Fold this sequence. Notes:
Blueprint (H helix, E strand, L loop, with lengths): L7 H5 L15 E3 L2 E8 L2 E7 L8 E5 L2 E7 L2 H10 L13 E5 L7 H8 L5 E8 H7 L3 H15 L6 E7 L2 H9 L4 E5 L7 H4 L2 H7 L4 H7 L3 E5 L2 E4 L2 H25 L8 E5 L9 H13 L6 E3 L16 H18 L2 E4 L6 H10 L4 E5 L2 H13 L1 H18 L20 H6 L4 H9 L1 H6 L10 H10 L1 H19 L1 H4 L1
Parallel strand pairs: 6-7, 6-15, 7-8, 8-9, 9-12, 12-13, 13-14, 14-15
Antiparallel strand pairs: 1-2, 2-3, 3-5, 4-5, 10-11
Helix pairs in contact: 2-5, 3-5, 3-20, 10-11, 11-12, 12-13, 13-20, 14-15, 14-20
Amino acid sequence: MKDFKEFIPLLHSKADPVSYGVYPLSVHTIKKTTLFIAKSKEGKVIVSAGPSVNLVGEKIVIEGTEVVIGELNHENAKVLRALFPFTAPKKVLSAARTIGVGDRLGIAGPGHIRVFEKYDAYPVLAQQSVRELTLTNRTFEDVLDAATFAVFQEGYKKGYGADGDHLKTEKEVETALSLGFSMITLDCSEHMHNEFELMNKDELDRTYIRFDELEQKYLNKDFDIGEGLTVSFSEEEFKRMVMTYKDVLEFASFIYDKFFITGSYDADFEISIDETSTPTTPAEHFFIANELIARKVKFATLAPRFCGEFQKGVDYIGDTDQFERELKVHAAIARHFSYKLSLHSGSDKFRIFEIFGRITRGNFHVKTAGTNYLEAMKLVAMKDPAFYRKIHAFALTAFDEVTKYYHVTTDITRIPPVDTLDDQQLVKLFEHNDSRQLIHITYGPILNKKDENGSFVFKDALYALWNTYEQLYSELLFRHIGRHLHQLYRHCQN
C-alpha cells in the first residue's frame, strides 16, 4: 500500500479511490469522519480520517487530520455496526425469498453480495455450524465480523441475516444470540429417537408409551390443510411419530420459551428436523408444526428431511417426480401454518431448484455453504496447479478421517491420479462428484495441517493466493451462486 499521506487527496476531494488501493464502495462519511477499507499485499485495513469514531489501530496525524489505521478485527467490526446499522444483521426470514450462503473461509462475502444485488432474495451472509467452526478454528464472532466488513466494503445496504446454524445446545443458542445473530437454526437431531423409525410393528407396540391426549387429537382424524389436501394418521404411523419426535417438541419449546418468548432477542427461529434416518412424511411434518404452534412456539421456517439424498457439494440424488409430489404436500402444510419451507444442504441441487421455487410459490429459504469453498479451491487449481496437486494428494490421505462428519457416497478410486492429468484437466475435476466431495469435506485437515515447526502447510499460502485473486474469486461465486438463484427463480419466468 502507498504511504498513507497519499490518502489526503482522497479525503479532501473526489479523487479516484481505486488508485489509492481503496475499495470505492467502502468510502462512507459520518459527521466529519471518512471511513474506508484499503488493500495491500499483506491484506486489508480499515481507515478513519477525521474526529475519532473509536476505531482501534495505529493513530497518526497527516496535515492536521487524525488518521486511524486498523485491522479488520472484532473490535472494529463492532464500531462499524454501531456507526452504520446496515453493517449489522437483521431479521430477514419474513421476506419471501431468503438464501443462506455460508462463508467457510470468511472471504466470500463480496462475491455473494453481487448476486443479491441482481436478485430480490435476501442473503443470510453469516451462516456457520458449530461443526464447521470447530474444523476451521473460527468463532461466531469471526463469521459475523467477516459479513460486516464485506457489507461495508461493498456498500450493501439492503440488509442481511446472520444464522447460528445447526445449534444443538442451550449454550450454543445463547452464544449466538448474545453476539447479535439475527437467526437461529435449532438442530433437533439429538432429541430424535430414530430407532423407532426402524422397528417392526411388534417391537413398536412393546415400546410405545401411551399418550391419551394426543391419541384423541390425531387418531382417526382427517386434517384439512387446504388446496384439496388432507392429512391423516394410521395407528402404526402415529406411534412411530410420537415416539420419534416427542422429545423434539420438548426441546424446541424449551429453547423458544427461554430465549424468544420474552422478546429479549430479536431473532428469527428455524426448526430443523432434517437430520434423521428417513424422510419426513407429510403426517410427521403436520404433527410437529401443529404441536409446536399449540405450545405457542413461533417459528419462521421449518426444515424437513425431503425424499432423496442431499449430499454435500453435488446435485440431488433421487426421483424428481417423487420429490415434486411430496413437496406439494409439505408446501401446503407450510402455507396452512404460515411459515416457509427451508431446504438444507442446498448447494448445487440444480435438478430440483425449479421445482422447489415453483411449488413453494417463490416463498422459500435455501441453505448453501461448502460450495463456496469448492469455488475457492477451483481457483487454486486454475492459478497454481502445482500447489493444488499437493493439496489434492493430502486430501486423499485425510478422506477416511472426515467421513465421520459427513454422509457421502464418494468413491475415491474413481478419481484419476492427478499426476496423469494436465493443468486443464485438473480444473475439470471440479465437474465430477467424487473429486468435488473429496475436496468439499476435507477442508478441516487441509486448513489445519502443520509441519514439524508448527507452521501451516497450506493455509497461509491459500489465503495469500485468494487475496491476490480476490476479484476472480468474486466472479466465480457470482456465476456459481447466481446459477442457484437463476434456477430457483425459473418459476417466475415460465
